[in-house]
Amino acid sequence: MRGLLGFHLDTSTPHGGRPCCQGPAACVSLQKTAVILCLLLCSTSLSPTRGQTKIPLETVKLWADTFGRDLYNTVTKYSGSLLLQKKYKDVEPSLNIMEVDGLELVKKFSEDMEAMLRRKVEAVKNLVEAAEEADLNHEFNESLVFNYYNSVLINEKDENGDYVELGAEFVLESNAHFSNLMVNTSISSVQLPTNVYNKDPDILNGVYMSEALNPVFVENFQRDPTLTWQYFGSSTGFFRIYPGIKWTPDENGVIAFDCRNRGWYIQAATSPKDIVIVVDTSGSMKGLRMTIAKHTISTILDTLGENDFVNIIAYSDYIHYVEPCFKGTLVQADRDNREHFKQLVDELMVKGVGIVNPALTEAFQILKQFQEARQGSLCNQAIMLITDGAVEDYKPVFEKYNWPDRKIRVFTYLIGREVTFADRMKWIACNNKGYYTQISTLADAQENVMEYLHVLSRPMVINHDHDITWTEAYMDSKLLTSQAQNLMLLTTVAMPVFSKKNETRSHGILLGVVGSDVALRELMKLAPRYKLGVHGYAFLNTNNGYILSHPDLRPLYREGKKLKPKPNYNSVDLSEVEWEDQAETLRTAMINGETGSLSMDVKVPLDKGKRVLFLTNDYFFTDISDTPFSLGVVLSRGHGEYILLGNTSAEDGLHDLLHPDLTLASDWIYCITDIDPDHRKLGQLEAMVRFLTGQDPDLECDEELVREVLLDAVVTAPMEAYWTALALNASDESKQAVDMAFLGTRAGLLRSSLFVGSEKVSDKKFLTPEDEDSVFTMDHFPLWYRQAAEQPAGSFVFNLRSAEGPEGPSQPMVVTASTAVAVTVDKKTAIAAGRSCPVIAGGPCLRLARATELDCFIIDNNGFILVSERPQEMGRFLGELDGALMTQLLSMGVFSQVTMYDYQAMCKPSGHHHSAARSLVSVSVIQTFPPPANPKTPLLTLTRKLLLEWSAWGSWLADSGAEAHKHKKQDALQPCDTEYPVFVHQTAVQETNGIIECGTCQKMFVMQQIPSSNLLLLVTDPTCDCSIFPPVLQEATEVKYILPTSRICRMRSQKLRRRPDSCHAFHPEENAQECGGTADTSASLPMLLLPLCAWVLPLQLLQ
């Protein structure tokens, strides 16, 4: 166990006069010592020689030692670090330091996670059994009349005050277990997308049948109160969700969410697949036809997941791959690649004559090569042919590549209302175990594309194989239309639901999919943070090597004032986070489900990339049984592999716990309070007290963590009296120097004491949940704790932070000083606590140095300025202000430059090119939010199914406005890889001096380390203009890849992955003659309304 102490210094002069010290006592020390320095410099400065001021080396060393001694005395006094060290020393005989067995730890975490996930699977199985039994006992009734709770209409009334049809009273109550949303835990409700008629006979019969799920939903939740959302997504389009909730349309009055287009539905309904999309770009596809074709491709892409592989070939009188880098191969259909394909498809142009045979030949060859090379999904293979039907003699291609086995299915999509070629297109599909549909409008695409999923699901349905599917991490918006955004990462367990009726067996009827969400945050609570040490952490990845949960996963980015999901947030590879694993040894072992360990030297970024820690980490890993997931646990060498254990009585611990200035880590689980409704209102500290006093025997608490908290509470209790005495005896001057003192322990206990009134605290966000870097979270220990843990024993680490407030940038700069308190037992050392106090730094204290024509800086070990005579320089990087000096320090080895990488960055596109030679740095589709289930659903605000007629004006309508839309896309940020420098002081160089040649003059400088700290004193001669040297910046730059290693051309499909265990590609009883027919071409609105719709709707919706 380990802890830390700290304090702050104010460097600003908000009112233009003397520095206003609003923080800890160190300000007094800084000001006083700065005056000493100035006096020494004034008395020892030599006469200028050749325009150069000589800097007295001994004087600078004397000042650094004096400053360091005064600073150390101040921070030691106010932090109380020596007292805390003594208190732990006093109890040392009763302490035990245990070495953590990382392999046993990861196995225990895995077993707990597997047990939790197994309960979710059991709940889903119960729903599957109930749904299939209900369908078996239900007879379809074409004239069924049935009222149900429509999620959109519930509680809605008409102008007479009566409930609207399907909108009866539905009791809703706020529930903390469901993110404080208004829900009904006694019954489910039913949602339908706008383009599905809520009284269609298929819908009414399905909803009626699925009423049987209501008691199962409730029983599941009662049996396992950790369950969250349970649901049934029907193949007809309705979505039954428990608990019942009211669904709010978007600003256009549209319900875009269609359960059949969600990853959990598609992955559960079908086996993995290799898909080649072949699209006609000949001149006959001009205008609206091409618009519909593009939308059809986009809809197909939305049905693919990370276990699928895909490519797109466009053809006219020649063939070309929409992404030249993907020529002759298939790539994994992860989110990143799908979005990239969508951008490229959006740029397709039409010209020439359509010759389909070469394109079909190319598609068959790719699929055959992948199958023979044992690459891709090794399951279903299919070609999607999208054309207006002008195809020539195609039979020889099928005879050569697909007959008689017909192992590659061919699905055909006839674009437009023309039916001349319908028979040909249907023949192709029916003779290749596929399905034919005609897509006449944008609104037709969704329903018609979904037909191919029903075909691919037939073998599984006929076999009645209920495969369990776990999805990748995702942020689900199904409940979050106009409600507050809940950006929690989820995974879903899902299973298909089949018709068991004998008369429909060969048809392989998929009724739908049931699923339940699992919040990854809840899963990771089973790897308690306190067991992993200061720098340790746990993480999960999928069978494809993608991150499911990791403290360094950053799924969001800021666009203006809004946080949005990154386009590739759920396809971040393990090698892009643990990028030190150059040989991908860790990635390979975890994907293969192995159990083992390895060690790596790593560079860990801190403080938003401004600083870096050099650690040796031990990685322990194993699989989670019956899931596609693997778990990793990381422990840092040294103190990270030890845990401090002790014993104290509950009575003593309780007495010392009950103090108003003591808090516990709010994210940590000391006691389980989120299952029993009576416990959900309890804070962790309150729950622990009830547990220790026996007031609530039903409370379950982590007894090991509770013991650690009790020990820490007893040992740290004297600090309260110590700090109180300091506050009472402090002079007004010293009160202006120190805001507060605080300490934290490895058990997540935090004590703090104010030396000023709360209204005078410089940084009001500090130590609050608003400032995640300063508190204990599920992902990390506080920044001040982590830095101090790596500081030499007995020394303090100083870190500058801006005290944000309504006044903006003129707010004081606050310095936090921290030190670690370590305990050694039997030659094993563990960190018991971290102590810190915030101090306000007196920047302009060095103003008198101007009299000597010298500049004085105090910088930290990463080159950031803590003290300067110019307040505006506080917090800035030295190289930004003085490139000559930083360049010299680097060349002398005083600082080293460490190159860091960020494979989750977002960059502005570097340019836009329509040709195949387009810049391959701009590699990802530019979409700043998760794609809706149907991007074109705003068209449905006027009608449920809008039929777009071929006409002369239809062509220009589809094309106009496209350019403006593309420019808007180009301006958006997109995923990229960046590298950035971090500068680190080499501690072996404690003092140095030198002369910088700056053309016509020379600039002299002296550097001296300040003892017992991470600070350096720099004294320079400002009279020499060295602006010929460029600034040294700590800026990220985009990695410019050169073909064939561009970001997109680094084939993700070539990375090792573990395929799902099951595959259902064909079944001998499958009825392949059910292969589609002519689509219904009746319009739901008179064609006379079409021109009006065209003018009213946004033009970009028709792209």
From TrEMBL:
Topology relative to the membrane: Single-pass type I membrane protein
Keywords per UniProt: Calcium, Calcium channel, Calcium transport, Disulfide bond, Glycoprotein, Ion channel, Ion transport, Membrane, Metal-binding, Signal, Transmembrane, Transmembrane helix, Transport, Voltage-gated channel
Example of a GO biological process term: detection of light stimulus involved in visual perception
Annotated GO CC locations: voltage-gated calcium channel complex
Keyword rRNA-binding: no
Broad class of the protein's primary localization: membrane
Residue span, VWFA domain: 274-456
InterPro entries the UniProt entry points to: Ca_channel_alpha-2/delta (IPR051173), VDCC_a2/dsu (IPR013680), VWA_N (IPR013608), VWF_A (IPR002035), vWFA_dom_sf (IPR036465)
A Gene Ontology molecular function term of the record: metal ion binding
Protein's name according to its UniProt entry: Calcium voltage-gated channel auxiliary subunit alpha2delta 4
